[in-house]
Specification:
Elements lengths: L2 H15 L3 H17 L3 H17 L3 H17 L6 H13 L7 H15 L7 H13 L3 H9 L5 H13 L7 H14 L3 H18 L6 E4 L4 E4 L4 H15 L2 H10 L1 H7 L2 H12 L9 H9 L34
Antiparallel strand pairs: 1-2
Length: 333
Amino acid sequence: MSAKIQKVLARQQAKIEEGDYYEAHQQLRTIANRNVKSKDWDSAVELLSSGASMLLKAGQGGSGADLCVYLIEVYNKAELKPDVANKARLLSLLRAFPPNEPAKKKFVGGVVEWSSKYGEFPAGDPELHHVIGTIFAEEGESYDAERHLTLGTSDSAQAFANMEYEWYSSDEPSTAPSYAARAVLPYLLIGNTRAANKALLLFTSKLASSHPGLGVQSISSSASDIRIYPSLPLLNFLGLLLLAIQRGGADLFKQLKVHYASHLKEAGWDEALAQIGEMYFGIKIPSQSNPMFDMMSNMLMGGNNPFAAKKKEPRSVGAASPAPSTPSAPALD
């Protein structure tokens, strides 16, 4: 940081400490604008990021957010890449926002759009999504958190499962499958089977330890470990669905849907399961509108796999070779 920028920031910090937030905000913006016009990107970035941080820490969410949004504009004009330093600067500002500050979502949208435009991932940088999702989860913004954790890193599944379980804890015991599915199904719809398995395992582990009276039965083999919940059939369905995907068994998938048909009718998972059937088992969806898939496609900025680099063709989900023997789904409740 240049001595000139340090002096500017020191003057504005003094104004902030005196409570003259408006003047500090305006001067920071004006000076940054001069830097932008002269294409002095480094100075503009330093001024806006440091100035925004000072205002946010002073509780001035609106003014701080305005400088944050301007900072993203500078990132775009300078065509900055989402490298470690540039991401760290944005995440530091994101953490500095007062809880539930309305303007934060506009900043988040700009961050994701910038990382999508100048990074490798069409749906936005996974590390940014992970931190954003975690912050939203901590603030109780569960719906926003779900979207970002779905597109996050390998660590996101744990944060996702923990959030859904905490949410479930304030609901009826019988609703556990609905909350588990809120993590499992989105992961499957973007082709992230590893995260789907991890999320379900973590969720059910918490469930088993918190509710020992459920009478959980474990079925283990060299290839898989399935937990059966006699009183929660849809939770069994999710576990067996993941097993069917692992084995590439279209017949097992069809059996599962038939066996659990009465329960699935009330779950409202039809659209998601239709898409999963096509992605993993080659079961074509009839030519008609698919609201769930449309929703996920919009979330993923056009339906691209967020875990594939832009230069590569979207990766299709291939089915694994079927195992020699497959358990019969109707034998499990």
